[in-house]
TrEMBL record:
Designated name of the protein: UBC core domain-containing protein
Species per Swiss-Prot/TrEMBL record: Brassica napus (Rape)
Sequence ranges assigned to domain UBC core in this UniProt record: 1-79
Region described as Disordered: spans on this chain: 1-23
InterPro entries noted in UniProt: UBC, UBQ-conjugating_enzyme/RWD
Annotated signal sequence range: none
A Pfam family annotated for this UniProt entry: UQ_con
Gene3D superfamilies linked to this entry: Ubiquitin Conjugating Enzyme (3.10.110.10)
Length: 81
C-alpha cells in the first residue's frame, strides 16, 4: 500500500512540474520522497514494463531467488557512505 502511495506522489509531482513550470522542474519533491520512490520501484518492479528481461523473468518465476541475488549484489557493491 505504501509503495503505491509513493509511486503516486512521484507521478503527481511530475505532472505538476510539467503543468506549472515551463522548464519542467521545481524543488517541490524531497530527497526522501525520491529515495522512497526508488526503493518502491526496486521492491516491486513493474512486470508490464521490465527494464531488464533477465531480472524480470527471475522475479516472476522465483521471487525468493530474485531477492537472494539482489541481496548478494548489495553485498558485492555496498553503498558509499
Amino acid at each position: 500500500m505504501a509503495s503505491g502511495i509513493a509511486r503516486g506522489r512521484l507521478a503527481e509531482e511530475r505532472k505538476s512540474w510539467r503543468k506549472n513550470h515551463p522548464h519542467g522542474w521545481r524543488p517541490a519533491i524531497t530527497v526522501k520522497q525520491i529515495l522512497v520512490g526508488i526503493q518502491d520501484l526496486l521492491d516491486t518492479p513493474n512486470p508490464a514494463d521490465p527494464a531488464q528481461t533477465d531480472g524480470y523473468h527471475l522475479f516472476i518465476q522465483d521471487a525468493v531467488e530474485y531477492k537472494k541475488r539482489v541481496k548478494l549484489q548489495y553485498k558485492q557493491y555496498p553503498p558509499i557512505v
